[in-house]
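Nitroreductase
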Amino acid sequence: MNFMKLAKDRYSVRNFSEKVIEKEKLEKILEAGQIAPTAGNYQPQKVYVVQSEKGLEKLRSLTKCHYGAPTVLIIAYDKSKDWKNPNEDGVHSGEQDTSIVATHMMLEAWELGISSCWVGFFSPSLVAKQFDFPENVRPVLMLPIGYAAENVKPAAWHEQSKELSEIVEYL
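Predicted structure tokens:
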């Protein structure tokens, strides 16, 4: 599959089957996150794999956007390990790094026939508290992943994009 086809075909799945992801496929998805570029190659990302019924139940109490996925990745970063911009205080790379990591994992998953949905609809501080994350670890997103339920289709807005002229400006 070429990249543009992969990028155009992939869509957010919001209804999963109960089928569990094979271990070797999950490891490939996690490896895609491992090799993702990060600022200065600091690799501050932390990926938490939630598959236990206890863990999934906690997630269900923290967000309605789990979509019944048998696996949810919580993607976070260690605030003590992300790159700090020496040119301006308060500018650091943690959220960008985790976004790159998540994107790599979503695309690898799709290539393997595994669906996902980027979720930001949750309280990061409550997730950190409920899962006993260290104080320096900040959750950024959740990625429910798994096999799509039957008859799942992309959202109506999936193929709607602004014109390039609306989002690109040459300087």
